[in-house]
Amino acid sequence: MARTQGSHSDITGPRVRDAALSLFAQHGYAAVSMRQIAAEVGVQAGALYNYTSDKQSLLFDLLKSHMDQLLASWMAQPEAPVAMQALEQFTRFHIRFHSERPEAVFISYMELRNLTPENFAVIEELRKDYETKLEDILRAGVAQNVFSVREPKVTAMALIAMLTGVNTWFKSDGRLSLEDVEQVYWDMVRKAVSKRTD
Amino acid sequence: MARTQGSHSDITGPRVRDAALSLFAQHGYAAVSMRQIAAEVGVQAGALYNYTSDKQSLLFDLLKSHMDQLLASWMAQPEAPVAMQALEQFTRFHIRFHSERPEAVFISYMELRNLTPENFAVIEELRKDYETKLEDILRAGVAQNVFSVREPKVTAMALIAMLTGVNTWFKSDGRLSLEDVEQVYWDMVRKAVSKRTD
DNA sequence: GTCTATAACCCGATAGAC
DNA sequence: GTCTATCGGGTTATAGAC
Q1: Which of A103, A128, A177, B1 gives a 20 to 30 Å CA spacing to B48?
Q2: Which residues of A touch B162 (CB under 8 A)?
Q3: Distance separating alpha carbons of residues A164 and A106, to the nearest angstrom
Q4: SS3 content of chain A, % helix, strand, coil (to 5)
């Protein structure tokens, strides 16, 4: 089972992706060179092309797999027929999922404009799919007469923006635990769609 | 009043800034070259250095003047001693101000990582100043016994993220007018901090 | 104030040796 | 599978003519 000199195909691939994710998040796709990624992995630039056809594919694969994971993880959640429970589940799921992978979330928002139009269209559709999950919950709550939401699409966008914003300030070693944060945001979400108010 | 050939100092400066703003917003700071900016303005690349010491200063000046304008515009608003009115004023002001300059808002969020550490610190402090304006309103509302907000700092971040999110989808020729959008968001904000709920 | 030309360097991607 | 070397092009910023 002697290996060719320097042959590490089984581990180098993921390491290329990890290095690209981290560097793209830190400096931005356009500012990161293939040579930088290679240095982080510990190979020469030419070797990267054994794992990706080009730099654009590297970015697209990172964003695509992030969106695929997001949708798959949500679908794997138990179904909640009661809208109020479904909304709480979505709120907590969104915060938890996004806070666990800040770099992937970051580039998924920041690097959309560096995708080719074809690649952008793919990611954009997956994003819309996710937004529709929340929109459907809001519509169900209106139908069940438990939410007051005149504009479900706008409201879904607003709530997702609010929840994703956790990533801009949350530190796991800060004053609030993630559980605390979930509770604070769930209180706001619940009230924002509620029927009664002062 | 004969001009030197090609002399347009009084108008070229703003045109350089406008071109940089537009191109940075479209393609990202790192992806835009000084040659591209020059071409947009209609001069050669070398001429840009009559208006900016380097590319970094161009970015910093755009972000700095955006934050200065934001704070100055907010301070120019009439004072509202009643917290509920102050919050409505902030909500509508934020949406209006940000929707009027989507490119400046966009680069102010996206290009922070391309600032030098010193420049970043300046912008970050201005951003914190603005966030504190909302936080103070929330604390006043709690003191006046009209808001229920356990975490004013977190809530301020959450509300700002939600309001800024308007820029990701709002089109002035869409189904909803900006006035409609303000109302939908103000309903959510008001309820999110309200004392009563279902 | 703008031009042309250039210094000094970096880029993505590929070819061919091992 | 990884290396070195390279192609053809790009970059920021400056120098000096006009």
Answers
A1: B1
A2: 158-159, 161-162, 165
A3: 10
A4: 70, 0, 30
Give chain B's domain count.
2
Query: Are B196 and A197 a contacting pair at CB < 8 A?
Result: yes
Instruction: Looking at the structure, tell me whether residues B39 and B70 fall in a common domain.
Output: no
Find the CB nearest B192 among A27, A188, A195: A188
User: Which of A113, A159, A195 is nearest residue B198 as measured by Cβ atoms?
Assistant: A195
**Nucleotides of D strand lying within 7 Å of any protein CB atom:** 1-5, 10-16
DSSP for A99-118? HH-HHHHHHHHHSGGGS-HH
pLDDT tens digits, one per residue of B115-168: 999 999 999 999 999 999 999 999 999 999 999 999 999 999 999 999 999 999
Q: Flag if B162 and A165 touch (Cβ within 8 Å).
A: yes
Per-residue pLDDT of A146-188, as tens digits, reads 999 999 999 999 999 999 999 999 999 999 999 999 999 999 9
Grouping H, G, I as helix, E, B as strand and the rest as coil, residue B159 is helix
| Whether residues A188 and A169 fall in one domain | yes
Is residue B197 included in any domain, yes or no? no
Inter-chain CB pairs, A–B, below 8 Å: 108
Q: How far apart are CA B174 and CA A150, in angstroms?
A: 17
CATH code assigned at A107: 1.10.357.10
Residue A52 DSSP class: -
Write out the residue range of the structural domain in which residue B97 sits.
54-192
In a domain, A31, yes or no: yes
